[in-house]
User: What shape does this take?
Amino acid sequence: MDVSPQPSSSQVDATDISVTLPDAEARARAARRGRKPLAEVSVSLSNGGISDIVVPVRVGRLLDTDAIALPLPVDDAFDAIHALELQVCFSLLTEMLSRRDYACAEMRSKLAAYGFRDIEIEEALRQAQDRRYLDDARFSRYFIDERLRRGWGRVKIEAELRRRGVSLEEIPGYPEEFFDEQDDLARARDALARKPVPASRPREKLVRFLVSRGYSFGVAKEAVRSYLNDIAEN
Assistant: This one.
């Protein structure tokens, strides 16, 4: 005898999905808020009702091409929409990583700007970390080494790492493995060697230049003192 559960006559199904993609005005409003525009989704129900949600535009475009086969029980339909959103979220994450590396907090902020829900973002980040696509320790080491090669000082590097959501205390070996005062002085001297000595107030202007590159005032002052002394002796 068949004892499988039978569908309830009162079950509500999602029968159709209608998508409205953002127009130029909506895109401009989103841009002013520093975010990406969202697509408006209307889900028609078998009881005559309509359920409206918003999703990232990439998700909306897929829904507009019948990415989800209907009809479905309404809860299953929304589960399918959210599963699609997670898929698109993770795809966008890997797309961005193909262009450059990101810190986890920085990636979270980027995905949120596209309009993904927190639950999808956190799951996409978890998957990326499990696969070592995202690794704050690796990102930080590369970031510091690359900025040192550009001639940045410690202060500027630390400020930029914090802006990207990196906790300095959680970087393995930080700061001893990355910074040394003598190395800072040498890099500061190298930066000065590539800059003409100002005709007026050279000491003040060169110190200000090094501070703007992220060197501490003490390192900048000592580097300029020894640099100008060497010039005067030669």
In short: Residues 143 and 154 are 12 Å apart (CA to CA).
